[in-house]
Amino acid sequence: MTEEIHKGLAGVVADHTAVSKVNPESNSLLYRGYPVQQLAAELAFEEVALLLWNGELPDAAQKEEFRAFERSHRALDPRVKSAIDLLPLDCHPMDVGRTAVSVLGANHPLSEDSSPEAELTKAKELFAAFPAVVAYDQRRRRELQLVEPREDLDYSQNFLWMTFGEEAPEEVVDAFRVSMVLYAEHSFNASTFTARVVTSTLADLHSAVTAAIGALKGPLHGGANEAVMHTFEEIGINPDETREEAAARAKAWMEQALAEKRKVMGFGHRVYKSGDSRVPTMKQALDAMVDYYGRGELMGLYDGLEAAMGEAKNILPNLDYPAGPTYHLMGFDTEMFTPLFIAARITGWTAHIAEQRANNALIRPLSAYNGPEERHL
Ligand code: COA
């Protein structure tokens, strides 16, 4: 009998989930039933995190309780700082993020406690602790000192404060918050599925998140947001150029890249085939940053690549496409973009880890053997 192979598990429905619904037909994405565009327009990222974990929007008391919790768990753990300091400055920041989560897990008193209460506590702590990892890593690469968190700032304000050592303007904070909400959750993508596979063996939460970070690093998944910026850099960013000039160069670059059969990161999606539901909202945030920083030529590159890809292959941008230049304009180093994605996706991963644990079955598919027939020494 020849088995039917689902290469890349494409089209396979592996389990139920109540965390989010991706609907490729209507290009929509719901977190716990709420359209992500509405959440991005109206809620703090902290509220979206509570929605993903709890299944319902928080009431005033829950918001206040988490507000205090999150603000008191932001400082960089000295053991994590020591571990980061052991890592070379030229290693990828995703390696730093992966190591930091592993160190936090190894030191956590509730590490082996998988009760729902302990898991939620660990998830919230990780959510609160991770921005310091990203911020400190970018600063040490720039030979700058650690900046301590500030309890008077919200999550997004404080993230930018710890990274840049100055208070970010409202427009920038808002675009950052929107990116966090949009990156928070996306059903059974590769990293979330990785987290669920690890959880299905009954391993601990930090092991599942560490593994998920490994999956997110690749350019076919989270690494695409930084790859987009590398594309822009390869084409050449020239602030003195007009938008039209930049667009023309970008179009020519894309035509050449496609003629060479290159995959251009930031385009295409396994599930959405007629547009990523998150792109319009992220594009608005990018437009706001372009206006704020007065960098129209970057949009020339953006438009030129998008138009040429559309004309040649009818392949549309995914969320990473507008997110990359947005983070660039904010001042993040290109290699820090995917760690920003970790900070956001910790919410979705840990919501899925809880869901997997609550109704677990070991995830273990079959394979069709195509090696040599039985033979003997
Ligand atoms: N650049 C160029 N061609 C692309 C492309 C891209 N970004 N994405 C898809 N294609 C082409 C493939 O080459 C393939 O063409 P072919 O049929 O002539 O071989 C066709 O479109 C189908 O693509 P495929 O890779 O089979 O789709 P998939 O569902 O397996 O892959 C991705 C989805 C996301 C892995 C793929 O679109 C990709 O590699 N995109 C770039 C990475 C990226 O941005 N990832 C972030 C996702 S949110």
Automatic annotation (TrEMBL):
<feature type="active site">
    <location>
        <position position="320"/>
    </location>
</feature>
<keyword id="KW-0816">Tricarboxylic acid cycle</keyword>
<dbReference type="InterPro" id="IPR024176">
    <property type="entry name" value="Citrate_synthase_bac-typ"/>
</dbReference>
<dbReference type="InterPro" id="IPR016142">
    <property type="entry name" value="Citrate_synth-like_lrg_a-sub"/>
</dbReference>
<dbReference type="InterPro" id="IPR002020">
    <property type="entry name" value="Citrate_synthase"/>
</dbReference>
<dbReference type="GO" id="GO:0005975">
    <property type="term" value="P:carbohydrate metabolic process"/>
</dbReference>
<dbReference type="InterPro" id="IPR011278">
    <property type="entry name" value="2-MeCitrate/Citrate_synth_II"/>
</dbReference>
<dbReference type="InterPro" id="IPR019810">
    <property type="entry name" value="Citrate_synthase_AS"/>
</dbReference>
<dbReference type="InterPro" id="IPR016143">
    <property type="entry name" value="Citrate_synth-like_sm_a-sub"/>
</dbReference>
<dbReference type="GO" id="GO:0036440">
    <property type="term" value="F:citrate synthase activity"/>
</dbReference>
<protein>
    <recommendedName>
        <fullName>Citrate synthase</fullName>
    </recommendedName>
</protein>
<dbReference type="GO" id="GO:0005829">
    <property type="term" value="C:cytosol"/>
</dbReference>
<keyword id="KW-0808">Transferase</keyword>
<feature type="active site">
    <location>
        <position position="269"/>
    </location>
</feature>
<dbReference type="GO" id="GO:0006099">
    <property type="term" value="P:tricarboxylic acid cycle"/>
</dbReference>
<comment type="similarity">
    <text>Belongs to the citrate synthase family.</text>
</comment>
<comment type="pathway">
    <text>Carbohydrate metabolism; tricarboxylic acid cycle.</text>
</comment>
<dbReference type="InterPro" id="IPR036969">
    <property type="entry name" value="Citrate_synthase_sf"/>
</dbReference>
<dbReference type="Pfam" id="PF00285">
    <property type="entry name" value="Citrate_synt"/>
</dbReference>
